[in-house]
Specification:
The structure is a homodimer. Chain A has about 280 residues and is α/β, with parallel strands linked by helices. Chain A has nine helices and twelve strands. In chain A, the strands form three sheets. In chain A, strands 4-3-5-12-6 form a five-stranded mixed beta sheet. Chain A has a five-stranded mixed beta sheet with strand order 9-8-10-7-11, sandwiched between helices. The structure holds a DNA duplex (30 and 30 nucleotides).
Chain lengths: ~280, ~280
DNA sequence: TCATTATGTTAGTTGAGCTTTCATATGAAC
DNA sequence: GTTCATATGAAAGCTCAACTAACATAATGA
């Protein structure tokens, strides 16, 4: 497309508005600018094209022949553009809000609560995809994500959701709080969480005779531990429900750290749906 | 037209270019910007609409479904706009260059020379409209004008063409140079030129017994004077041909003043035809 | 004739649009 | 597998297009 000989699109839009309104002042109100801006734009298009397009008549302006022909083309052209944008927005609004969350967070925190979200906002369909990768939200079509880390991800806006302290838990009666390393109870560790394992060893909470089993998900570890099979360590927020309901007891706890769970989304203006979901997340803590 | 939810037109054009090129770098070359500008615009449209439109694939980008739909609409819309602009330009180029000049200038200076202009530029049709008014060039559809005055006309670009000194002339043998006031020859004055009449009186060039006749145009005055009917005063440039050809003799002359003949046109870039005409005027002195 | 509302015009302000710079990714050639 | 060329990604900084503010002039209605 040859844009070389085309006046400024802003100027053409100003002319289009003035042409349809028959008035610089009315066009200005429609485009939320001053009449001076419209006047300058229109005259610059005229100067550029070497033709008079709108001339003063009484308290308004009327189109010349050249102006009428240009106005027709612009009306069609801008109409198509606006319709195309509107259509894309409608499609975006029609599909479910696409959310990605880490496996642990999705299973232990989000899914138990999602019923409450739907109760409150039945009109917002969600699509929740568990993933531990820091995916490219835009490329992979996500509106919003929840991720675990230090919150420093270039090109993303991050909002702190949960602090990342850990709690050591077991079923009631399995081990006394001050005898974790001497208890002989089996440790269950999630495969990916090397850091929490290191912490357990450095805190002296694992004895030489204690067996440890590595599993692939926190959910598996929690299933075993709820059944009285031993001890595990998890982010405090992910086991707060189990503790509150008496299924597990807290044996030890780390200090809150810099890393934690964050809400992430691309920079820029958020759609209403994303805003709603984000606000709900922050309130549902 | 509701522009409220429409991304920046510059950004949409950048997206359109990238969509059709399949490459930010190629789109940048086509729009004469850097690839960074294209990338920023595209991502801002995506952020605004809440949808991925172009994703990286190998060394280029490909359209998503949403992107393809938007690209179709933009292609149509921008295509219409460009076609409309092109059509108006073509019409403007097809019609004659519209020139307004003062009556005197048109008759005494321009028309005698216009043949040379057409000889040199046969492809440029001209429409010459004599008028002494400082018309609204744009409103009245003129490309360029020639006017007499001090050159200080707000909103117009002015280029000095001719200085406004005056020459007193008569046919050869009608009057001796040092005996204008004593000659008894009839003075012919153009109606509008009060200033030159005042100069004649103040210079003592009109005697108490001399008749003076006021006519409506310089052309009428010159006709009478060429026929030996008396004396007149005119802008030097307008009678330089008559003097050179021996039809008239110069009897007296004013000093050049601030006022004079100017080429006027609206501000902004001039079309090639206007540039050509203007340049020719300045050379044809 | 006066008040209201329009366009015309110019000087000044500012943020959208861009460039610059550097980083990272991809693919071709060797 | 390495190197080089060419792509996109991202952030900081620059600048002038687009605008506002202010005042002038024109047109219309009361």
């Amino acid at each position: 497309m040859n844009w070389r000989d085309v006046p400024s699109l802003s100027a053409l839009r100003a002319f289009d508005a003035a042409a349809r309104a028959g008035s610089f002042s009315q066009a200005a109100r429609e485009l939320n600018v001053t009449h001076a801006a419209i006047a300058q734009h229109v005259r610059s298009v005229e100067s550029d094209l070497g033709a008079s397009l709108l001339v003063r008549q009484g308290r308004g302006v009327v189109l010349t022949d050249a102006g009428a022909r240009l106005a027709d083309a612009l009306s069609d052209g801008f109409g198509q553009i606006i319709a195309g944008v509107k259509s894309v927005r409608a499609d975006v609004d029609a599909r479910p809000l696409s959310i990605t969350a880490t496996h642990n967070f999705a299973e232990s925190w989000l899914m138990p609560r999602i019923g409450k979200f739907w109760a409150k906002y039945p009109e917002i369909a969600l699509s929740i995809v568990p993933s531990n990768k820091l995916v490219d939200l835009r490329k992979d079509g996500f509106d919003v994500g929840i991720r675990y880390g230090d919150g420093n991800w270039p090109g993303l806006e991050t909002t702190h959701l949960l602090a990342a302290d850990y709690t050591v838990v077991a079923a009631p009666g399995i081990v006394k709080t001050d005898q974790i390393a001497q208890s002989g109870a089996t440790w269950f560790f999630e495969d990916a969480h090397q850091e929490s394992q290191r912490w357990v060893r450095e805190a002296g909470l694992i004895g030489p005779s204690q067996k440890s089993v590595t599993v692939s998900t926190l959910g598996m570890a929690l299933s075993a531990v709820r059944a009285g099979g031993g001890i595990t360590i998890a982010a405090s927020a992910l086991v707060s429900d189990d503790i509150k309901d008496g299924r597990l007891v807290a044996l030890s706890q780390t200090q809150p750290e810099r890393i934690g769970y964050y809400i992430i989304h691309p920079p820029g203006v958020l759609s209403d749906r994303v805003k709603t979901f984000k606000k709900w997340l922050l309130k549902a803590l």
